[in-house]
Amino acid sequence: MSGEMRWQDWINALLGVVLFITPFVFGDTSQTAAAWTAYVGGVLLFVFGAGSLLFRWNPTIEYLPLIEGVLLFLAPWVLGFSGITAMAWSAWVIGVLASVNAGSVLVMGGNLTGRSAASGEQSR
């Protein structure tokens, strides 16, 4: 477990809440694929963010929201709701934000570069 609280975890949790409520905000709850993508994706982002905040998980857990962000970005095309503009844009924007957010934790934590952020030494 890492002992520090990261601001990126708060952002992941917030992005999850925002994604979860987008079908209600845009009134697109009847679009099954789009709505379920928002519900499941929102819950997962919230769990990853809140779990990291509460349990201080290791920064390597940030690979999960990174992967989820990529999947959210691809979901409108793969699941066929790219024509539903509001829901597609919310998936694209939140997917990019989640990926960038998780990637910043990995880069700052040294997991992508193989170096420790604090000491600059090569990790083994």
Secondary-structure map:
Elements: H1 7-26, H2 32-55, H3 63-78, H4 85-109
Helix pairs in contact: 1-2, 1-4, 2-3, 2-4, 3-4
Concise structural overview:
By secondary structure, the protein is an all-alpha fold. Helices cover 69% and strands 0% of the residues. It is elongated.
- Low-confidence runs of at least 5 consecutive residues: 113-124
- Helix segment tally: 4
Mean pLDDT: 83
Radius of gyration, whole Å:
16 Å
Structural class: mainly alpha
List keywords for this structure.
124 residues; mainly alpha; elongated; disordered C terminus
Q: How would you describe this protein?
A:
The protein has a domain of 42 residues. With 124 residues, it is mainly alpha-helical. 69% of the residues lie in helices and 0% in strands.
